[in-house]
């Protein structure tokens, strides 16, 4: 009997790490969904009795942020592998904006405050706060440290970025067929949808994914272009999810355009150190495109001229990327890249 008990204790000790790992995985996957589902349904119930106003929306945001921050600080910070960290920030992005799925009743009632809840803007803000916190837990830099330590930008580089921004905006505003279809309420909905995309996607792709990729390839001489191209490709691949409500040709076009714009956004972020600037530019791109089409999704047919525009933009981005890899421009980006992964590198060297 004693031998049997000792064998059981020995087996339990051997399997304990496996059990802990399984428990961690279950909590990583289940907790954000439970939080999202719970907050969504509670607010949906409250809204059915008494419409949620500004105060209710602020409370929803506060509760949602607090619950997810607690989850991140207790569970997510335990992830040690950058591969699993990358997978988690992508997974969490999909879940963080889920509560709006439980507020469909507001859209049918044309409730302006309800639309604020249904678009995912609250989820995007929550995601940004949680990602900044968890990246600090993982010993990476944050956007605030980049702003604080950012170097003075070169006038020529800034001028090039401004001109290219205007070029992108022109490509979005070249058609105004959808403007006459818009009402004040539809503009409000497009505005919130664009805020969701600008904040959520930039904190996911330009901060989270780009930083992790920079750490992946920190010993490579060409780490900056590798990380930029990698994060831009992942950013573009996300848009294949739009196949649920738009056709394949439009989605492929969107994939190409977002891959190109992703390179542009990453270059701006790594050179200026101002993620909020990239969020603003992303917002302008998406909002201008939504205004001209009258819809947050792409509509119409892709023509030969559209593909020619994409090719021209791709060539411009390739030239810009190569140009930024030389001289003080490259030094500034290397400096900002080191700020993003500095504490991580110091920690690894200490080991």
Question: Could you please describe the fold and organization of this structure?
Answer:
The chain is mostly helical and 351 residues long. Helices cover 79% and strands 0% of the residues. It has 14 helices and no strands. The chain has helices at 2-49, 54-74, 82-96, 104-108, 112-118, 121-137, 143-149, 155-173, 184-216, 223-238, 248-272, 275-293, 304-323, 327-350. Helix 3 (82-96) runs antiparallel to helix 6 (121-137). The longest helix has 48 residues, at 2-49. The N and C termini lie far apart (45 Å). The model is unreliable at 4-9, 104-108 and 343-351 (pLDDT under 50).
Strand content: under 5%
Distance between the termini: 45 Å
Instruction: Work out the helix count.
Output: 14
Q: How many β-strand stretches?
A: 0
Mean pLDDT: 80
Structural class: mainly alpha
SSE run = HHHHHHHHHHHHHH
- Rg measurement, Å: 23 Å
What is the molecular shape? globular
Give the biggest sheet: none
Uncertain stretches: 4-9, 104-108, 343-351
**Residues in helix, %:** over 70%
